Amino acid sequence: MRTRSRSIDNRKPPIDNAFVRLPEPIDRGASRAAPEARSERTVAAALLTLWIAGAAALHAGEPTGPQRIIALAPSSAEVICALGACERIVGVGKFCNFPPDLATRPQVGGLFDPDLEKIIALRPDLIVLRGNNDSLTRLGEELKVPIHRDGTESLADIESCLRAFGERLDRRAAAEERLREFRAALEAVRRRVADRARPRVLLTVSRSPDRLGDVLTAGRGTFLSEAVEIAGGQNVFGNLELAYPQVSGESILAQRPEVIIEFLPELALSERIREQLLDQWRGLGDLPAVQSGRVYFLTDDHCLIPSPRFVTVIEKVSYMLHPGEKR
Predict the structure, then answer these.
(1) Among residues 125, 169, 180, 300, which is most buried (max CB within 10 A)?
(2) Can you give the residue range of the structural domain that contains 286?
(3) Confidence at residue 118, expressed as pLDDT on a 0 to 100 scale
(4) What is the pLDDT of residue 150?
(5) Residue 192 falls within a domain, yes or no?
(6) Among 180, 211, 246, where does a domain finish?
(7) Is 185 inside a domain boundary?
(8) Domain boundary among 180, 207, 226
(9) How many domains does the structure of the chain reveal?
(10) Do 169 and 251 belong to one domain?
(11) pLDDT, mean of each 10-residue run, the chain (327 residues)
(12) What is the pLDDT of residue 267?
């Protein structure tokens, strides 16, 4: 099995069309004294104001924006739930597993194998995906359901994603709060490692499990490369323009990484498998990271998901790079 990582109901309808009956118009031709007519008009105006205020109050507590969301992108599903709108998700992609409450939602496949019939049956009013699928695009057009494309690739994009869903779901205050928390957590990591030497770091996001081949790493501008920089390291392939380039053993040897971190969210890492992976690195040649015993494996299920929760991965990386720092 290849250790390839993931890249990267019946609810009550909201009250709508509330009907407010307006007061009957005043009969200007009626034979009454002018003061009495003015008094009735004043009362009518006051009643109208009260009715309008009552209608506004009736709708004030109703959620606005999409109410039946299909979330195929794990990162977007996490953002929607972080904004307090998890109950609006009626269907999820097969890799959406956080928060745990999403396990109760119907699964509708993934980006490359969506279950179109199940999606139609769930009557979505918004489909969220990361990447492109022509069949989903056509389905959205046929159903007249908008598609939100999550283009998150960098840490700045995570912030943009929070803002976008804050607007779309009318959760602006929650989005601003999550943004403050995210930025504060990143800044705490930066401060903790600010005065430390920055080791040269190799990241792997995918490779063959039985040999050290087909190694994919992270290039410039990706959230993974940025994570290394914030955690106090230097990404040895951070100058490459391609987001996730494949690199050879020879190029890895030439870069002489001092720390190697393998991102393996789908791997059950036993001691036997750990030794097998380490042996493969030992067989590559003279690498400072191998000689000093600084080859690490990250198996957290969210370590390749660019969501606000990714900050916990950056914290772990920072302690791998600077193990002497107090937690």
Answers:
(1) 169
(2) 197-321
(3) 97
(4) 93
(5) no
(6) 180
(7) no
(8) 180
(9) 2
(10) no
(11) 43 29 31 42 40 39 82 96 97 94 95 95 96 93 95 96 97 97 98 96 92 94 97 97 96 97 90 93 94 96 95 97 75
(12) 84
Angle at which helices 74-82 and 155-168 cross, to 10°: 60
d(CA 152, CA 158): 6
In a domain, 223, yes or no: yes
pLDDT for the residue 58: 37
| pLDDT value of position 326 | 57
CATH number for the domain including 242? 3.40.50.1980
- Print the SS3 string covering the chain: CCEECCCCCCCCCCCCCCCCCCCCCCCCCCCCCHHHHHHHHHHHHHHHHHHHHHHHHHHHCCCCCCCCEEECCHHHHHHHHHCCCHHHEEEECCCCCCCHHHHHCCECCCCCCCCHHHHHHCCCCEEEECCCCHHHHHHHHHHCCCEEECCCCCHHHHHHHHHHHHHHCCCHHHHHHHHHHHHHHHHHHHHHHCCCCCCEEEEECEECCCCCCCEECCCCCCHHHHHHHHCCCEECCCCCCCCCCEECHHHHHHHCCCEEEEECCCCCCCHHHHHHHHHHHHHHCCCHHHHCCCEEEECCCCCCCCCHHHHHHHHHHHHHHCCCCCC
- pLDDT (0 to 100) of residue 63: 63
Considering only CA atoms, which of 319, 155, 158, 308 is closest in space to residue 226? 155
